[in-house]
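Chapter review: from sequence to fold.
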Amino acid sequence: MSGKFKGFERAIGIVSPLLLLGIWEIAGQLSLIDARFFPPPSSIAHQFGVLLASGELATNTLASLKRLGLGMLLGGVPALLLGLAMGTSRPLRAAIDPLISATYPIPKSAILPLVLLIFGLGEMSKIVMVALGAFYPILINTVLGVVNIDRIYIDVGHNFRASRWQVFRTIALPGALPSIMAGVKLAAGMGLILIAISEMVAANDGIGFMIWNSWQVLTVDTMYVGLLVIAVLGFIFSVILDEIERRLIPWKSSA
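The token string follows.
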């Protein structure tokens, strides 16, 4: 019964966006909506094919993915290590937590001018923006995951004279993995947002640049193609991270 219900849910997930696209297409063809601002999906699909054939779409997508990947590494690895350290050390958590609480609410897009001032208009500024967006979700979720581990496991490790590294590797990291993966998913979404914003302001390629340039020359179809690519990338990242989570945390999927 549960298998049938999951299949029904999957079918709804496929049919609902197709139904929405169908309504959009009919409304556009019947001029019920302004095609200058909301071109029908058939027009967007045609432009997608044109950009794909010319190589422009692939070039911009790969540029954004490269920056996104480097930014996730630059922000995610320190956040993971610091989060594990804060989760297992109350003095360190007490010292750093106020700084995180004070800086986290600052909109990362508002920091872009400062980042451009420090790192210039080159690649590093875009990578740093993604790193800033990835750092906080991963750090906060890692700390939360470690803190929520039943204290008895850490006490057992200490009783067996486990080193700090062994506590990290065998207790803190596995116990916090579900929370860490949630943070990585949030970080990936935030990274997509910030890479698009930074490329609109200071880039000559990338999906954000393509969207901004299409607005400047009023090629609305291309703008929608850029938005579609970001949406598809977000979906692909979600599927990949779900699969990684299923393999890393098999006990969660079987619960």
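Two observations follow directly from the output. The chain has eleven helices and no strands. The longest helix spans residues 164-201.
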